[in-house]
Design goal:
194 residues; alpha+beta; five-stranded antiparallel beta sheet
């Protein structure tokens, strides 16, 4: 298991403080949170954030790979825009849900949690999103097509393969009429090797 990059507790304390506890809590999902949120929610809406985009450029050394053979998961990187889903968690359930979400998303403190303005059909909401800094040691940088193929062919972790993760995300995005051309292209690369 990799050592924590940062202590995640101060970041959780900051998020709780910034939320304030007066209203329901919103979370923006752009990857596996869309198809496997693992928390109860009162409402789910399609949403778009500006200034950020979904990218399969985060090393996974536990969930979708190993230290010896890292896999990939999504990060939300600066630039562009991203369509995903926002989830509304009732205020009374928010702290418990946030604690469980933190255990899932932030055990090693690799994400930069931040509040983003999300445009939804029901109006704009401020939602917590797990973003990735290009300075993070878990940011892959640019990968070649051959490297993506190799990762898709071999990387697997406690939750399964990187390929299955990417495929499940694409299927769920398509189910919600969200088009991600970059992800579809990466998965075509993987299929070209089969």
């Amino acid at each position: 298991m990799t050592k924590p990059v940062r202590d995640p507790q101060p970041m959780l304390d900051r998020v709780i403080d910034e939320w304030g506890g007066h209203d329901d809590f919103w979370v923006f999902g752009y990857g596996s949170l869309i198809w496997r949120p693992e928390f109860d929610f009162a409402e789910r809406r399609p949403a778009r954030v500006h200034g950020w985009h979904r990218a399969l450029k985060m090393w996974s050394r536990v969930n979708r790979g190993t230290v010896e053979n890292p896999g990939l998961v999504f990060g939300l990187l600066s630039g562009g825009s991203c369509r995903g889903m926002v989830f509304r968690i009732p205020r009374a359930d928010a702290l418990d849900t946030l604690g469980r979400l933190w255990l899932r998303e932030m055990p090693t403190g690799v994400y930069d949690p931040r509040w983003l303005d999300c445009v939804t059909p029901g109006g704009n909401v401020r939602a917590l999103a797990f973003t990735l800094s290009r300075r993070s040691p878990n940011f892959t940088g640019d990968l070649t097509e051959a490297r993506y193929r190799q990762i898709f062919a071999s990387a697997t972790g406690r939750y399964g393969t990187s390929l299955d993760y990417a495929h499940q995300t694409l299927v769920e995005l398509q189910r919600h009429a969200i088009h991600d051309a970059a992800l579809a292209r990466l998965l075509r690369l993987a299929r070209s090797d089969l």
